[in-house]
Amino acid sequence: RTLPSTLHFGIYCLFTFGYCMTSKTSLWGASLFLPPLPPLLGEYLPLFCFVAWGPFLNRFYLSLYPDEFHKITRHISDARLAAYVLLLLFAAPVHSSQYILLAMVTGMGLGIYYLQRLIVCVRRGRDGAWLLLAGTLVFLVSAVSDALSHARVIKVAYLIEPGMFLFVITQALTLARRFTVAFEAVETLSDELERKNASLRAEMDERNRLEREVVQISEEERRRISHELHDGLCQKLTGARLRAAILNRRLADTGDGAAMADLRELLDASADDAYRTSRGLWPVEHDPSAPGPSLDDLARRIAKDTGTAVHFERQLGCGQCANPNVTTLYRIAQEALANAAKHSRASEIRMELRCPVAGGVRLTVRDDGIGREAAGRGHDARAKKPGDGLGLGIMAHRAAIIQAELRIGDAPGGGTVVTCVAPCALARGAGPAEEEPRHES
User: Structure pTM?
Assistant: First the structure.
């Protein structure tokens, strides 16, 4: 449907076939398939086919080279056919016969026009134009010879049929060439697209690798700072707190006792904050059966700092989780718990870690708070909307780095539920869980 030149060529060939099978020189061909034709029909049918192929030949040229051929020639060809049909219906047979000579003359005029236009196409490098030029030249020579023979100027055999045969061959070769060029272009584009896709995949893999490396470096830097805090500032604060406790006991009965008690409490709070900061930067594992950084400790700290009840449940298929993504899952849980404690006004938060599940290891944080709408959040954690917080975007980015699926939705009965499913090669082949669910509060 997008190649009208093929349709016009096919209709042109049908009229060419009709002319050749019913013309006087080869009427025997039609008699092989049709009953004997009435004399008047046998006279007019080949002439009609001779005139009728003109409009479709013109449309064939226009569809191939619309910039070189003028559309007004299409109206001339249509008028030429319409005039002959009217003569067939209403004029005397002698007038119809005379019209054939006029049709031949106009046909030669159009042929000369086509020849000149095809020369322009060849000069402009249009595909297949030189083939059509050769075929049109042969066809025009045969048409001129038949017109002169019909007018009794010369006495030669009609050449229109071999001329049409060669012309049709050049048309078919032109279309075949255009199809070949189109298929080659499609193959070239397909190969180029495949190369670009491969390059894009390699670039995406490299970007994901760099993102994972950046996260790894960030976590390593957190660990270094945490250790420096723990071994440096925290130890010094602990030493200062112990000395303040000793001085407090010595100065308890003096006037400076109250000031020393206040200093001791300040040092106690500062040491606790320093240790809490150190554990937040790089949590220390307390339970050998827990995965990576301690989610148990995280739940306890959130509950202690916010006064919100935090319950943690885990069910693991391995005695010790070896998933390389557990640190990222810990960060996502840390952000989800902080959001629930700060914004949802929840009285209870439940966190679950289950493996194996469909897709790998699943982390779920569910609260009974006021929900996302009331908290002023958007509905899609992946879309950056005016109401979305930075934390949601960070969680989505972390999940994307480890190719995890992150979903944030409304919990049944109210509140918000955050679910993150991270891939795990071990989880795919793991059997039933080796331990009963553990509950921590």
Answer: 0.45
